[in-house]
Amino acid sequence: MNRFDYVRAETLGAAIGAEGALLAGGTNLLDLMKIGVATPDRLIDISRLPLDRIEQSGGGLRIGAMVRNAEIARDPQVLARYPALAEALLSGASAQLRNAATTGGNVMQATRCSYFQDPLSPCNRREPGSGCGALGGATRNHAVLGWTEGCIAVHPSDMCVALAAYDAVVEITGPGGLREVAMEEFHPLPDADGAGKPPLMPGEIITHIRLPDPGALARNARYVKLRERTSFAFAIVSAAAALAIEDGVITEARLALGGVAARPWRCRKAEEALKGQPASAESFARAAELATEGARPSGDNAAKTPLAQRIALRALERAAAGTPERLPALPASVFAGDDNG
Amino acid sequence: MDDLMNMQGQGHVRLGSSAGQALTRRDGMLKVTGAATYAADNRPDGLLHAVLATAGIAKGRVTHLDVAAAEAHPGVVKVYTPANAPRTALSPDEKIHPFVWRMETLTDDSVRYAGQPIALVLAETLEAAAEGARLLAPRYEAEVPRVTLDDAEPFETDTTAFGRPAGHASGDVDAARSGAARHVTATVETSQQYHNAIEPHAITARWDGDRLEIDTPNQAIGLSKQTFAAFLGIDPSQILLRSPFLGGGFGSKAILYGGQLLAILAARDLGRPVKLVLRRDQMYGPVGHRAPTRQSLQIDLDAEGNIAALEHDTVTLTSTFDQFLESASNASHSLYAAPNLRTSHHGRRADVGTPGPMRAPGEAPGSAALEIAMDAAAQAAGMDPLEFRLKNYAETDPSTGMAFSSKGLRDCYTEAAKLFGWAERSAAPRSMRQGRLLKGWGMGTAQFPCPMFQAAAHATLRADGTAVIETSAADMGQGAWTALAQIAADGLGIDIDKVEFRSGHSDLPDAGVAGGSGHTATAGTALFNAGADAVRQLAELATNDPASPLFGAGNAGVTARSGRLYRNDDERSEPYEDILARAGLDLVRGEGKGAREGEPDRAMFSHGAVFAEVLVDPDLGQVRVSRLIGAFAAGRIVNPRLARSQLLGGMIWGIGMALQEEAVHDRRSGRLTNADLAGYHVPVNADVPMIEALTVHEDDPYVNALGIKGVGEIGVTGTVGAIGNAVWHATGIQPTRLPIHPESLI
Description:
heterodimer, A: alpha+beta, Enolase-like, domain 1, five-stranded antiparallel beta sheet, four-stranded antiparallel beta sheet, 26% helix, B: Aldehyde Oxidoreductase, domain 4, globular, disordered N terminus
């Protein structure tokens, strides 16, 4: 790999505005450096910043950017009130990686589009203006929503899908002060020329993820993930669903899809359609259909749209059935549900 | 039979004291504590690190390498390109034996596949070498590559892998077909696969004058020493090759590749030790793979459901410069009673690295297609899959007419079906459920040949009653250090704890190749014979020594056991130590060989039956192998614990082949899009909730004197088809392409 400087930021102040690539858990950045996709001149190690706590915040939770994925997944508050987040986290990567990967790093991880990861392929995301190497290539895993000819990559995170469903907010600090962005809009969608503008300005750092009070959504929330390997594999498609149900009627619904777009895909229309409807198979089927509105294949991935609808349906059904007392042994697995007898 | 007679003639020792015991690995502690030294762990003084630069195009030529930039990088010592690379003594395309592939040693600027070595950078640190290789920033003149079965160039050939005939015909398929009641066809495609040994290919090379020391993981130490010597133009006696442990090989470390020679040549040229370790992505190119296949089968049935004719054709890929064709159709030669049988192979040339042997080469994809076709035929005949296979059970090898040396397959069917509960299967597809999930039960027959190679061994009994056994075996994780020592201990008639095993380097007698599932049989025979030879010498001493209680018992009249020789005619015995001490000897040394003499007059195979249960989500198409049970008849089981581990490992490979493993090319660039362990999926523990492998008793007096068949590869066969058939039973969708993707099931 290229030669680079390494500095450790001891305080948040030292990290803000610093020039270089931010290094936290390193589970993605170091891989990218080894394969020549990321070639930073300088690494700023922020892993020791005091952003490693999960705090109560206005009825919700505030998760520091340096909290490890595994810690969130075993946090009693998260398990009790945001179970779909815990399930999403436990369905991702491996135990070793979850122990190392941070909240902020999970949000900032790069797409696993193989053309992005191959420095010899054109990629607008890696090298603006070079074109999209994936278009016309091996595209089974690529986007069906929100893509352009400039970029058809998907965001790989499971955590972010659940966070988007929970209306999470990303707290960002930079030279210009604080700003907040909704999780569901944090990752830019591609524009005609490429991947869109980067989510963080130079010198900015994610400090926290804030989760609002889930209220009645706490009891009926699940994450479901389709993949060929039962662990240590990214989603073909996934869905997070959370429902508030009173007397059999849905009073609030949340639905987000993973593996379909360059960001976790919040399905607002489907949510609207569920509100006030009975928690029934018909309601869920209708919502699942709406979830992928506007979807179109970007290559050899026409099957993703029906699969996304079906994973949405499954997540809604499982959410309606109630969050289990304990997370299943195969978190988020298609085979993990009580619905499978 | 000659071996057997020889051994009976020696008469003093027998297998069964140590062999047969479920010992834990003798090298287990070394491995779990990290004390076992693998090739890349070696750090001789003055070491230089080498990194290969590899081609980013699949066809064309390299027009420019920025050697100046690489050489200017701090720490870089040397850059080798076709302009200055040291030459081998032989042409890179020389075939000194059938297991030599083109040695890519930077002889010209042409590129024949993506990932081909195009330069070698030597530096003081690994990091500097890696950056130097990156700085070469090659430019190319690229041509349009052909990398898949669809666009590759057909060619005709008489031979497939290892020089086997490309076709076979017995009986009259056409006549039988025209008279048959039913005709069943099946087409199955399998994907390009990679070995994915966790230990990457590595070499540390050091010259001391004209003597060369090599540390490199290798499955055929003796042969590789010869090959290295030939390409280097030196005498084999100048080379010491060490390979005490392999972190997986699966066939890919049986074949040498040019990078190893480049590292050796660089070490000689620069006068310093050189280490070259492939990056993970570099494991997907120059060091072999399993080629994709497109297989077409036709099974013609008479009115009673007997196979009247069986035809199996395979189309598969090789590189543009070497020929290794996956001999998949051969899987149909010896398994089912097909009185009329025709098999064929057709090659295509593509801009890919040369494929090579990968665990059950030919048999794995061939068995998968055959077993799916057999289920199609069973359906056509209106029979249960097991009943249909039993009806077409081959009592003799249909391709040769020879009797089987042993065939415990009926017991395998019975035992595995019973444990699985196969009798409860409901025949119709989509007729079994578990909650909302579709449940499917499928089966497949496993079969793998029992080759033997050439091995030699020494066994030395020492004055203190301990022994040293010597043969350059390869332990690639299968447990050779343990299983071979068990056989040797029985050959010596002593407890295994008294046996010191020297193995894994080329100054020892050659144990042959660890491949073809024949290593334990071959090297084990050599070790057993060496031990028996040592005991024979000891018995001769004792029975001729008037001071010995064994005096006059005669050679045939004593038996070795637990380090003592016992008279067969009364209770008297004597420890080995006393015999040696009285004779004034420090040791006696026995020598032994292991090989099969002459052409076998029997068909020799391991067999097995594998039963799979899958659950399939009907909406999402995801498949889970919820139960996998196999029973295997593999002759004498030397170590049940290790054998089970081998069989389970093979079966888990079957899960991967059926549901996950697939190298995906970009057809425009010819590069792989998933050349790492994140993108190329192999099964994880969570994919294997319930798996069991049984062995059934099988005595085989013909396969070799010890009755050992082999368990390393057979687990892959049968399993892939069983899973495919279970998916078919669950969903009603006949698999035509492996791995089976969820989207093909919705």
